[in-house]
Every structure is written in structure tokens, then in C-alpha cells.
Amino acid sequence: MAEKHVSLADQAYETIRTNILNLTYPPGMQLTEARLTADLNMSRNPVRTAIKMLQSEGLIVTDYYKSMTVKEITDKDIREIYQLRELFEGSAFRLIFTLGRYEEYSYRIEEKLVRMCAAANDIFQWEIADTNMHMEIVSVFENDRINRIYENNLSELIRMGQNSVKNGMDIIQTNENLKKMVLLMRENKYEEAYAILKADHFTIGKETALG
After folding, report:
1. Exposed, middle or buried, 193 (CB in 10 Å: 0-12/13-18/19+)?
2. How does pLDDT run across 118-156, given as a tens digit for each residue?
């Protein structure tokens, strides 16, 4: 089977998007075509196409004077995202136990946790693994619309999560707490397991993201 050809525009998009998500290009940073073409060692046309794609995603914003910046993350954004997470994930976590699927999901979450532990020394990769763990929790709904809501907010979740770590959220401790949560799930201890998820990923996560 022939390899799928990846266009220069797609390559430019992936590189710029990754640089935004891993905070190489932090929120509020001003970007120019000249800067991006130099960084990527590409001509302007593929970079221009990539910029349009990222503008449509909302990761790059343009003001009245056509100045481009990486989208800021406001305190309002953080509060809204964490409210969304608590509503969906709180309901999903309860449903896992209501359906009697707590043992199954303990192993599914543990699989994602293994990746989080392996990425403990790389904040960006750990945050990607963490968002995958949260996607696993909401997968119990088997609801494509909820999945799309999460996917549409992943770029903000990943950037916010890195700020949480930089502002004091402890990756090692979080991983250890999740290991305890997994064991509690296997014992069908919903209240104790959810208390860990809520404390680490909604309360501490939000407070440290807000700085």
C-alpha cells in the first residue's frame, strides 16, 4: 500500500500547531509570516495555508490591523473548561459504576495511566496522555457529540494543563493518586475513587491553571 502524501501545508500546520500546544509559541505571542517561514524553513504559500487552518480552529487570532497572535487563555476560559469537564466527567464516572463497568474501566484508565507515568518527565507529552485518560472516562457515554465537544476543546485543555503543572501541580503525585483511584474503582468504591478525580483534576487543576 502506498504511503499517504503529506503536503507542505499539512506539515506546516502540524508543526505550528504543536508549537502552540507545547507553548513554544505561548498564548499572546505575536506571529508573522516571516517568522513562521523562517522557523519552518518553508516558502510563504504553505505557511499561509497553515495559518488559515489554525485561524479557523481559533488557535491563531487576527486583530483589526491584521496582526496575528496566539490565542490567549483567559481566566474565564479556564473556569468554563473546568466546569464543562466536571459536568461531563462527573456524570460519566458515576455512570461507569451505575452500569457495573467499574472493573472494566479501571483497566482502561490504567492503560492510559501507564502512558502518563512514562511521560512524567515531559510536561507536554504527559498532558496529552492525561487528556486521553479523560477522553477514556467520557467514552462510557458512547456519545459522538460529547466526544466532539471534548475534541474541540483539546487544544485549550492541553495548554491549560501545562500551566497547571508549571504553577505547582505535581505530576508524580497526580500519577500516584490516579493509581489509588484505579484500585478503588476495582473495589467498587465510587465515592472514594471520585473524590480523587475531583480533587486532583477539577479542584487543584483549575486552581493551578488560574495561577
Report:
1. buried
2. 999 999 999 999 999 999 999 999 999 999 998 889 889
Q: Please, are residues 75 and 210 in contact by the beta-carbon 8 Å criterion?
A: yes
Local structure of residue 66 (DSSP, 8 states):
-
Distance CA(202)–CA(86), nearest Å, equals 6
SS3 state of residue 14: helix
For the stretch 173-195, pLDDT in tens is: 999 999 999 999 999 999 999 99
Assigned C-alpha cell, 163: 500551566
Nearest-angstrom CA–CA distance, 51 and 150:
23
pTM given for the model: 0.89
Do the beta carbons of residue 196 and residue 180 sit within 8 Å?
Answer: yes
Q: 31: part of which helix (H) or strand (E)?
A: strand 30-31
